[in-house]
Amino acid sequence: MLEKVNLHSRQHEQFRADVIEGLSASRKTLPCRWLYDDRGSELFEQITKLPEYYPTRTETGILKARAEEIAAFCGERAVVIEYGAGAGVKTEILLGALTNPALYVPLDIAGDFLAASAARIERRFPYLEIRPLVADFTDDFELPADLPKLPPRVGFFPGSTIGNLAPPDAADFLRRVRGHVGEDGRAVVGVDLKKELSVLLRAYDDDAGVTAEFNKNLLRRINRELDGTFDLEGFAHEARWNARNSAVEMHLVSLKRQSATACGRRFSFALGETIHTENSRKYSLEAFRRLAERAGWRVEQVWTDPDRLFAVLGLC
Ligand code: AVI
């Protein structure tokens, strides 16, 4: 309980520090991890079901269609470590296809969410041993020493969340996974691929306005948790393509000259000035291969859909 309170207050302090730093910068920016409070997670769930948002259903389709091959790649008696629990259906497809998985270790920063998704997996796979772990996968951390050391250990990171990390952070993350699974270990990673711009931009600016709501919810969170005074009507959601970084960016655009307070500070906005809230990088297979190699991995398998929208990669 005490640990939960500590984690909560540490997170609150970090959120406050990020808001002060990000909104004081000449180009205002906020880390995308703060998009996921309860409401943000709920909205993201809705996004995954939108007709315009192809990544989730495409990746799920690949996992289903290639489940046997992916399971063979992972090996028998695998210890599966999932980075960011709660991929739900995708986790169930992988675990359901594996031959006698030895252990499932879901990791997530949100303890409640982690417990709920571990309970769901337990109901579906009653004979599988599960060891949920509260951890932030973007930080360095050690796995518990008593986890079985025997290979194969498999890192599972679906959802193209790797695209939300800047390339140096993505490489650090992949190095960390290598450290966790060992030299004999493997990883199965979901990567969103570069494609036609109109398809990309629609996926991040849907007609129903769910992504806009998801983005603006960050201001609502600042208002609630950091005594903010942001006028939500004064900002609009925008999805932009950044060709240099090969990323769809989410911005909150100020619709007027205005100021707002939060954390006891005042932040001013010019008309059209933006808060950059997320990068979602889109990789070519070649660019991802280079990233993986820099981090000590080889891309051994590429499973993709007929339109090559998305790839599930087997690394070893
Ligand atoms: C979680 N992540 C992979 C999503 C993405 O596509 O980058 C987050 C998201 N942002 C807007 N829509 C979805």
Name the features.
transferase; 22% strand; 316 residues; binds N,N-dimethyl-L-histidine; Rossmann fold; seven-stranded mixed beta sheet; alpha/beta; three-stranded antiparallel beta sheet
Give the overall silhouette. globular
Low-confidence stretches: none
Question: Could you estimate the helical fraction of the residues in percent?
Answer: 25-40%
Query: How many strand elements?
Result: 12
| CATH-derived architecture of the domain at 54-195 and 282-315 | 3-Layer(aba) Sandwich
User: What class do helices, strands and sheet pairing give?
Assistant: alpha/beta
Which hetero ligands occur in this complex? N,N-dimethyl-L-histidine
Overall mean pLDDT:
94
The profile of the biggest β sheet is:
7 strands, mixed
Please state how the strands of the largest beta sheet are arranged side by side: 3-2-1-4-5-12-11
H/E element string? HHHHEHEHEEHEHHEEEEEHEE
- Gyration radius, in Å: 20 Å
CATH topology of the domain at 54-195 and 282-315: Rossmann fold
End-to-end Cα distance: 38 Å
* CATH class group of the domain at 54-195 and 282-315: Alpha Beta
Q: How much of the sequence is in beta strands?
A: 15-25%
InterPro entries: EgtD (IPR035094), EgtD_Methyltrsf_superfamily (IPR051128), MeTrfase_dom (IPR019257), MeTrfase_EgtD-like (IPR017804), SAM-dependent_MTases_sf (IPR029063)
GO molecular function: methyltransferase activity
Domain Histidine-specific methyltransferase SAM-dependent: 15-313
Protein name: Dimethylhistidine N-methyltransferase
